[in-house]
Specification:
The chain has strands spanning 2-7, 10-12, 18-26, 34-39, 46-51, 57-59, 67-72, 77-82, 91-97, 111-112, 116-120. It has 122 residues and is mostly beta strands.
Length: 122
């Protein structure tokens, strides 16, 4: 089993920045691709960004140019740097990991964190 623990969420003003972190523990040898998803109440979980073990990335159109995903395989940690935040970025953000080499669909991820709230408001 793999445990994922997110941190770094909070309240920020529009135009501000936050950095989310997700630390993996347990059977980390099984982890390949990792990603960040977000979900608002009553809505489906949507991909924010994903990254392969080799560092290839994919982003949702709504965050391109503002968010950046990265990972440290040595630290078993994935990061999401969020800049120029907007009120519509307000959501619960989830870290996810999969045994697959790459994945953008939520159903392809094997492990999920508990989520961290990001609120963008003045």
């Amino acid at each position: 089993q793999v445990q994922l623990v997110e941190s770094g969420g909070g309240l920020v003003q529009p135009g501000g920045s936050l950095r989310l972190s997700c630390a993996a523990s347990g059977s980390i040898f099984s982890i390949n691709a990792m990603g960040w998803y977000r979900q608002a109440p009553g809505k489906e979980r949507e991909l924010v960004a994903a990254i392969t073990r080799g560092g290839s990335t994919v982003y949702a159109d709504s965050v391109k140019g503002r968010f950046s995903i990265s990972r440290s395989n040595a630290k078993n940690t994935v990061y999401l740097q969020m800049n120029t935040l907007r009120p519509e970025d307000t959501d619960v953000y989830y870290c996810a990991a999969t045994k697959k080499s790459q994945a953008t669909k939520a159903e392809l991820y094997d492990y999920w964190g508990q989520g961290t709230q990001v609120t963008v408001s003045s």
